[in-house]
C-alpha cells in the first residue's frame, strides 16, 4: 500500500439523505446529520467498533438539518451546533436533546454552512459560531447572547443577493483577532476581519465556491483552500497580503466535477483531502516555495504561492461525497458521507511518512 | 515431358525399406517430395520419379535425406513383411491414376488434421496462459486485501486501547470529581446551579452514553472551569458589515464553462434593444411612444388579455417592423395567431422566436418552453401530430416538471397511435 492510501474501515447504509458527518471529539463516535424522506431532520450517533458502525442514538427534529459543528463548545460539554433548512441555528446537548441549549431563527433561508471557533481547547477567545445562508448573509453568533448576532455581513440595501455557500473561521490566535471567510455562489470569496469589523480581502474565482477552510483556525492565518464548481480548487497563501494583489494562490483542476469539500488533516496542516462530485477523494500535499514572500517593484511585500501535489486518489461511490471530516484524535481516520445515502469510515495509512 | 528416373536401388528389412535415388546432377535443393501411404513421388525439374509402393508405409515417420548426389529414403513399413518388389508390378494406368488421386486426397486430409491439431494445441496454450495470469492477479489482489485487513485490525486495536484509556481516565476523574463536587457545592451553587446538575447526574449513574462524561483531557474540576469562563472576553459588540457582490445578471451560480454562452446571450439582448429599423416613411406620423417596441409590446399584451386578438397582432406587427430582433414579440404574436387559428403563421412566429432565443441559457428557458408548446399546438391543430409531439418533447426536456406539457404529450402520443392503427 502506498503512502496515504485510503483503506475502507466500515460503512453504513442510511435510510435518509446525509448532509453532514462529524466526529465527536475525544471519542470513537460520529454523528450523521441529514434529512429524512418525510421532511424531518435526523441526527444519528454511531460508534465505531472495529469494522462496524453501531447506532447508539437517533434524534429527530422537525426541520431537516444541513450542517453541524462542535467547534464552539468545550470538551466537557460537547454541544452540537446545527443549522437547518429553515434558517434556525440550534445548539443541542446530545444527552438531553429535546430542548436546545440555544436557539435562534438566524436566517430567512437555509443555513448552508456553519463553523465554530474557540471551543474544544483550540484557539483563544470567546466561543463563536458563524453561519452562512442562502439569503446572502453571514452572521456570527455568541452562545451567551440571545437573538442577535454579534456580527452580520449582509448585502448592501437594494442590491441583489448571492447565496453564501460556505463559511470558515481563521486567524484566531489571540483573544481579539478573528477572521471569517465566506464563499458565495457567484465565485466571490470574502474575508471579514472581526476585530476591525471590516472587509479585509475579496476575490472572485469565477466558479461558485463550495467549500473554504483555513489550514488551522487558531494560528496566524497561513493557508486558505477554496474549492469550487468545475473541479477546481485554489490554495491561497494568507501570510502575506499585498495591498492591491491580495494573496498569492495556486490552483489545481482535480477532476471534471464539483469539489464539494476540503478538509485539512488536523495533525498536519499541509495535507488536505478534497471530495468530489464523482464520488472520489483526493489527498493533496502542499509544498512551500523556497521563499514565501518577495518584494515587488514598488517595494511592497507579496506572497509566493507554493505547489500542490496529488498523493492519492480513491473512488468510493458514484454519487457526490458531500461531507468529510477527519478525526481529531486518531491520525488518518476520517468519515465521509455521500449522496448515495451511505456513510463510510476510512483510514488513510502511512501518513507519518509524509 | 519430364524425364523419368528409373535407376533407383533399394534394399529392405522386415520393418523398413531403404530406397536410394541417384540425382544425376540435378540440384537437390529444388527437390519436392510428395509421399503418402502408398505412393511416393519425387519431382526435381526436369526429372520425375514416382512409385506406387507394394504395401502401405507409415509416411509420418519415414524420412528422406538429400545429399551426395542422391536422395536416401527410409520408409517404415506399416506391416512388417518382406516385399516382393518396391512397386506394385501389374498396376495399370487407371489404377495408378486412382491411387495417385487417393494419395493426394489422403495427404490433404492429413494436412487438414494437422492444422486442426495445431489450432487446438494453440487454444490450450492460450487458455493456460490466461489462467496463469489470472492466478497471478488473484494473488496480487489477495496480498493487497491482506495488507488492508492488517491495517484495519491495527487501527481497531488502537481505537479499542484508546477507548479503554478514556474509560479508565473518566472513571478515575469522575470519582475524583465527586469528592471535589461535594466540597465545592456551596460557593458555586448560585452561579452554576444548572450546570452542576447536569454534570452530577451522569456521574452518579453509571454513564453508559459517555458523550456528556464530564472530564476530558483538558481542565479537571468545575473550579478551574469556572475560572476559565471568567477569563473569556465578553461577547463582541454587535456590528454589521455591508457587502457588495460581483454583479451577475443571471440568478444561477457562476460557472466558468458557461461564461462564453452567457456573454453571447447578453450581447444579443443588448444589441436587439438598440436596433431600430427606422427607414420607414410611415413612421413619421406616429406618436413618439408608438415608436417604442416595448410600449407596443405592452399594448399588444393588454389587447390579447382583453380578447382583441387582431388588435394585438397589429401592435406586434408594428413593433416587429421597428425592431425585428426581439424574440418576445414573435412569441406573443404566435399566441395571437393560435387564437385566431392562423396556424401556419403561428408556426412561423414560434420558429422565428426560437431562432432568436439561441444560445440556450437558463435565462430564456421560460420563453423557449412557451415557443415549443405554441408551435406544438399549431402542428397538432393542423393534424401534423408527429411534428407536434417533437415540439412537446423539446419543451419537456427544458422543463421536465411541467404536468400540463406531459399530459398533452401523452394525448398526442395516443392520437398518433390511434391514427396509425386505422
UniProtKB/TrEMBL annotation, chain A:
Keyword Cell division found: no
GO BP: apoptotic process
Location in the cell: Dynein axonemal particle
SMART domains hit by this protein: WD40
Origin: domain of life: Eukaryota
Gene Ontology CC terms: dynein axonemal particle
SUPFAM superfamilies assigned: WD40 repeat-like
InterPro entries per the UniProt record, alphabetical: WD40/YVTN_repeat-like_dom_sf, WD40_PAC1, WD40_repeat_dom_sf, WD40_rpt
Role: Key assembly factor specifically required for the stability of axonemal dynein heavy chains in cytoplasm.
Name of the protein in question: Dynein axonemal assembly factor 10
Origin species: Melanocharis versteri (Fan-tailed berrypecker)
Organism classification: Eukaryota, Metazoa, Chordata, Craniata, Vertebrata
From TrEMBL, chain B:
Keywords associated with the record: Cell projection, Coiled coil, Cytoplasm, Neurogenesis, Nucleus, Repeat, TPR repeat
TPR repeats: 369-402
Coiled-coil stretches noted in the UniProt entry, renumbered to this chain: 104-154
Any GO BP annotation: outer dynein arm assembly
Key word Transmembrane helix present: no
Record-given protein name: Dynein axonemal assembly factor 4
Compartment(s) of residence: Cell projection, Neuron projection; Dynein axonemal particle; Nucleus
Residue ranges constituting the CS domain according to the UniProt record: 3-87
One GO cellular component term: extracellular region
Species: Melanocharis versteri (Fan-tailed berrypecker)
Entry-linked Pfam families: CS (PF04969)
CDD domains noted in UniProt: p23_DYX1C1_like
Lineage: Eukaryota, Metazoa, Chordata, Craniata, Vertebrata
Annotated InterPro entries: CS_dom (IPR007052), CS_DYX1C1 (IPR037894), Dynein_assembly_factor_4 (IPR052004), HSP20-like_chaperone (IPR008978), TPR-like_helical_dom_sf (IPR011990), TPR_rpt (IPR019734)
Gene Ontology terms for molecular function: nuclear estrogen receptor binding
SMART domains: TPR (SM00028)
Amino acid at each position: 500500500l502506498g503512502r496515504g492510501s485510503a483503506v475502507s474501515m466500515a460503512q453504513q447504509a442510511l435510510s435518509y439523505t446525509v448532509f453532514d458527518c462529524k466526529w465527536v471529539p475525544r471519542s470513537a463516535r460520529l454523528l450523521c446529520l441529514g434529512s429524512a424522506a418525510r421532511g424531518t431532520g435526523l441526527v444519528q450517533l454511531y460508534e465505531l467498533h472495529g469494522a462496524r458502525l453501531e447506532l447508539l442514538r437517533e434524534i429527530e427534529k422537525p426541520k431537516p438539518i444541513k450542517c453541524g459543528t462542535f467547534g464552539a463548545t468545550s470538551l466537557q460539554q460537547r454541544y452540537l451546533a446545527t443549522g437547518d433548512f429553515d434558517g434556525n441555528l440550534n445548539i443541542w446537548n446530545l444527552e438531553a436533546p429535546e430542548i436546545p441549549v440555544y436557539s435562534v431563527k438566524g436566517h430567512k433561508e437555509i443555513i448552508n454552512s456553519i463553523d465554530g471557533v474557540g471551543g474544544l481547547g483550540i484557539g483563544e477567545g470567546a466561543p463563536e459560531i458563524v453561519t452562512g445562508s442562502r439569503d446572502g448573509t453571514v452572521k456570527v453568533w455568541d452562545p451567551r447572547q440571545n437573538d442577535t448576532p454579534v456580527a452580520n455581513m449582509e448585502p448592501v440595501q437594494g442590491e441583489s443577493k448571492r447565496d453564501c455557500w460556505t463559511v470558515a473561521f481563521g486567524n484566531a490566535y489571540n483573544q481579539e483577532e478573528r477572521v471569517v471567510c465566506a464563499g458565495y455562489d457567484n465565485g466571490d470569496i470574502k474575508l471579514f476581519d472581526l476585530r476591525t469589523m471590516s472587509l479585509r480581502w475579496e476575490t472572485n474565482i469565477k466558479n461558485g465556491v463550495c467549500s473554504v477552510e483555513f489550514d488551522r483556525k487558531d494560528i496566524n492565518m497561513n493557508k486558505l483552500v477554496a474549492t469550487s464548481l468545475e473541479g477546481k480548487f485554489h490554495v491561497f497563501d494568507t501570510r502575506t497580503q499585498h495591498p492591491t494583489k491580495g494573496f498569492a494562490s495556486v490552483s489545481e483542476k482535480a477532476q471534471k466535477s464539483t469539489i464539494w469539500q476540503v478538509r485539512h488533516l488536523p495533525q498536519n496542516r499541509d495535507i488536505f483531502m478534497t471530495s468530489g462530485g464523482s464520488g472520489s477523494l483526493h489527498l493533496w500535499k502542499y509544498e512551500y516555495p523556497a521563499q514565501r514572500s518577495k518584494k515587488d517593484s514598488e517595494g511592497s511585500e507579496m506572497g509566493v504561492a507554493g505547489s500542490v501535489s496529488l498523493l492519492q486518489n480513491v473512488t468510493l461511490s458514484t454519487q457526490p461525497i458531500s461531507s468529510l471530516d477527519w478525526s481529531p484524535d486518531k491520525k488518518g481516520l476520517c468519515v465521509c458521507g455521500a449522496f448515495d445515502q451511505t456513510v463510510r469510515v476510512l483510514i488513510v495509512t502511512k501518513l507519518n511518512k509524509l | 515431358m519430364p524425364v523419368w528416373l528409373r535407376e533407383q536401388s533399394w534394399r529392405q528389412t522386415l520393418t523398413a525399406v531403404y530406397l536410394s535415388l541417384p540425382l544425376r546432377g540435378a540440384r537437390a535443393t529444388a527437390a519436392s517430395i510428395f509421399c503418402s501411404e502408398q505412393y511416393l513421388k519425387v519431382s526435381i525439374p526436369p526429372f520425375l520419379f514416382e512409385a506406387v509402393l507394394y504395401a502401405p508405409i507409415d509416411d509420418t515417420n519415414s524420412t528422406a535425406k538429400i545429399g551426395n548426389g542422391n536422395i536416401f529414403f527410409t520408409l517404415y513399413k506399416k506391416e512388417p513383411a518382406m516385399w516382393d518388389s518396391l512397386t506394385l508390378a501389374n498396376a495399370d494406368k487407371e489404377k495408378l491414376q486412382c491411387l495417385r488421386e487417393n494419395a493426394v486426397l489422403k495427404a490433404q486430409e492429413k494436412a487438414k488434421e494437422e492444422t486442426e491439431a495445431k489450432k487446438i494445441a494453440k487454444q490450450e496454450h492460450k487458455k493456460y496462459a490466461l489462467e496463469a495470469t489470472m492466478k497471478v492477479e488473484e494473488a496480487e489482489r489477495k496480498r493487497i486485501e491482506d495488507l488492508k485487513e492488517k491495517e484495519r485490525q491495527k487501527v481497531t486495536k488502537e481505537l479499542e486501547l484508546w477507548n479503554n484509556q478514556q474509560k479508565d481516565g473518566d472513571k478515575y476523574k469522575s470519582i475524583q470529581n465527586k469528592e471535589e463536587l461535594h466540597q465545592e457545592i456551596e460557593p458555586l451553587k448560585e452561579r452554576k446551579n444548572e450546570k452542576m446538575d447536569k454534570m452530577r447526574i451522569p456521574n452518579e449513574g453509571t454513564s453508559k452514553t459517555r458523550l456528556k462524561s464530564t472530564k476530558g483531557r483538558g481542565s479537571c474540576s468545575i473550579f478551574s472551569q469556572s475560572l476559565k469562563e471568567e477569563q473569556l472576553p465578553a461577547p463582541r459588540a454587535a456590528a454589521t458589515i455591508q457587502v457588495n457582490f460581483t454583479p451577475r445578471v443571471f440568478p444561477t451560480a457562476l460557472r466558468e464553462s458557461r461564461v462564453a454562452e452567457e456573454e453571447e446571450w447578453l450581447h444579443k439582448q443588448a444589441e436587439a434593444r438598440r436596433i431600430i429599423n427606422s427607414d420607414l416613411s410611415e413612421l413619421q406620423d406616429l406618436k413618439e411612444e408608438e415608436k417604442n417596441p416595448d410600449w407596443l409590446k405592452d399594448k399588444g399584451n393588454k389587447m390579447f388579455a382583453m380578447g382583441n386578438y387582431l388588435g394585438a397582432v397589429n401592435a406586434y406587427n408594428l413593433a416587429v417592423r421597428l425592431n425585428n430582433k426581439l424574440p418576445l414579440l414573435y412569441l406573443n404574436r404566435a399566441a395571437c395567431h393560435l387564437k385566431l387559428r392562423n396556424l401556419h403563421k403561428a408556426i412561423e412566429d414560434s420558429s422565428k422566436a426560437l431562432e432568436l432565443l439561441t444560445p440556450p441559457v437558463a435565462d430564456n428557458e421560460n420563453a423557449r418552453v412557451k415557443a415549443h408548446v405554441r408551435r406544438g399546438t399549431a402542428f397538432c391543430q393542423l393534424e401534423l401530430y408527429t411534428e407536434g409531439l417533437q415540439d412537446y418533447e423539446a419543451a419537456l426536456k427544458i422543463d421536465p416538471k411541467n404536468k400540463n406539457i406531459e399530459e398533452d404529450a401523452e394525448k398526442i402520443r395516443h392520437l398518433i397511435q390511434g391514427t396509425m392503427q386505422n
